[in-house]
Amino acid sequence: MQLILLSGGSGKRLWPLSNDIRSKQFIKMFTRENGERESMVQRMYRQIKVVDAEAILTIATSKTQVSSIHNQLGVNVGISVEPCRRDTFPAIALATAYLHDVQKVSSSESVVVCPIDPYVDDDYFECLKDLCIQSGKGEANLVLMGIEPTYPSEKYGYIIPTSKDSPSFVSAFKEKPTEDIAKQYIAQGALWNGGVFAYKLSYVLRIAEKLLGTSSYLELYGNYENLTKISFDYAVVEHEKQIQVIRFAGQWKDIGTWNTFTEVMNDSNIGNVIMDDCCSNTNVVNELDIPIVAMGLHDVVVSASPEGILVSDKGRSSYIKPVVDKIVQQVMFAEKSWGSYKVIQVDKGSITVSITLNSGQRMNYHCHQKRDEIWIVIAGEGRTIVEGVERYVKSGDVITMAAGMKHTVFATTQLKMIEIQLGGDISVQDKQKFTL
């Protein structure tokens, strides 16, 4: 089974855990049976491999998420990188061309497209296999997953099938309705449209030729910022007559807000949290190194990270995005392909950062023109290269790099360092990479 997983934007509705780099799907909020925590993307990847060990995954995402994907899934997963945001049709067209031109997947093969962040059980992935098989039969150009609605939601679009069979052809699509109209749709046998569908590569490649002027991966990538911004629904689904839908009646949750996120958390509290017996329906997530004490709270979510602290009524938490959009600050925590970093302190002329490099990983060989840097090794072993000179380093060692000096660090074991950046104009853009 070929899968394209759509990995979306910054997910600020889960602030302060999510930011412009760390989207909601990378937050490790779920506890496995062995006690380890995993993120939505790790959970979905694991579930896919349980159902289909031979499944081939390609993640369509932005540049800012590539490091997090490599950090959590390794370097062997396929990634179709969007140079900028152009909505779902260009993203899907680019990923389809990536499969065909780069991965050499036959244009007659089917692929399933789905979001990367729903909360589902293994039967969801069995249904994905059914979509892929049904698409391969060629009875329709698109095969959709229709989710059996559990209530008259105003948040989702609706699929109106021609019958209660599965698969069934589709007679119409309806936009997000009012609650009363949603009840009417459900009475007609309507299904939620969860944005999950399958097609043969040749189908989307033909449409890309027609709407975008090319189906070549290199041409699409090179001209991506000039492509028309349009959703897959508007570009393809609304104009297609040959569409089938397969029903899915299992668990499916669209986790987009703190309220829905807390519904699927294994533990009511994460991190250093003390909660008294008078609290009810309250969740606390603490990523700081200080305790949070919650007393007498009802229907509340509390979340603390280096980005900030949220205290909200659960019902109001879904309205957070326009509030945090007004907050302007640098990213305080991020996962990289080599490990992670956390900003400890920001002062005028200096920034102090805690860095963790995973065993066997290294940073790029790079330099900065507008700042000096000092590394203080606090745990582990490794080696540094500064201006071509290699040095073994261990706990207690100090490495100094003046502006313009090329440098990198390799982790022999897990390596923890404090990095001090000094300069009048410290910026993430001030970085030049070199080949070592």
What does this structure look like?
By secondary structure, the protein is an alpha+beta fold. It has 3 domains: 2-254, Spore Coat Polysaccharide Biosynthesis Protein SpsA, Chain A (Alpha-Beta Complex), CATH 3.90.550.10; 261-319, no CATH class; 338-434, Jelly Rolls (Sandwich), CATH 2.60.120. Helix content is 21%, strand content 36%. The chain is built from 10 helices and 30 strands. The strands form 8 sheets. A 6-stranded antiparallel beta sheet has the order 20-21-22-29-24-27. It has a 5-stranded mixed barrel with strand order 8-11-9-10-12. Helix 3 (88-102) packs across helix 6. The longest helix is centred in the first third of the chain and has 15 residues, at 88-102. The radius of gyration is 24 Å and the shape is globular. The two termini are 38 Å apart. The model has no long low-confidence stretch (mean pLDDT 91).
Which terms summarize this structure?
10 helices, globular, Jelly Rolls, 5-stranded mixed beta barrel, 3 domains, 30 strands, 436 residues, 6-stranded antiparallel β-sheet, alpha+beta, 21% helix, Spore Coat Polysaccharide Biosynthesis Protein SpsA, Chain A
